[in-house]
Write a structure and sequence with these properties.
- There is one protein chain.
- The protein is 77% helix and 0% strand.
- The chain is mainly α.
- It has one domain (2-103).
- The longest helix is centred in the N-terminal third of the chain and has 34 residues, at 11-44.
- It starts with 10 loop residues before the first helix and ends with a helix.
Length: 106
């Protein structure tokens, strides 16, 4: 919905932008919970000596930085961002993380 709002002028559009900003800050809290849980389970399972957990950390950081850069570009220029690019970055990151966690290849 936010992608279609070029210059919000109505009260409904302003409310949607405010809600989007609120959820953005809330999502960082959930991301922090996921990271802390991963670190705690890594310590509990003594996984830090294996390479797959370090690769997973690199993937999470790369995905967050890439999606953050796209979000900053979207907010600054108010240009349309290709939704498929955001989807591909998120899905590839998620699939790689699942592959690493399930198979633990190295």
């Amino acid at each position: 919905m936010l992608l279609s709002l070029r210059s919000p002028q109505s009260a409904e559009a302003t409310a949607l932008r405010q809600q989007s900003t609120t959820w953005r800050f809330g999502s960082y809290g959930f991301l922090g919970v996921v990271v802390l849980t991963g670190v705690a389970l890594g310590v509990q399972g003594n996984w830090w000596r294996y390479g797959w957990i370090w690769a997973a950390i690199v993937i999470v950081v790369a995905a967050v930085l890439a999606l953050g850069a796209i979000g900053i570009r979207l907010r600054r220029t108010r240009s349309r961002v290709r939704v498929w690019l955001i989807s591909i970055i998120g899905m590839v990151g998620l699939l790689l993380l699942l592959w690493l966690m399930v198979l633990k290849p190295f």
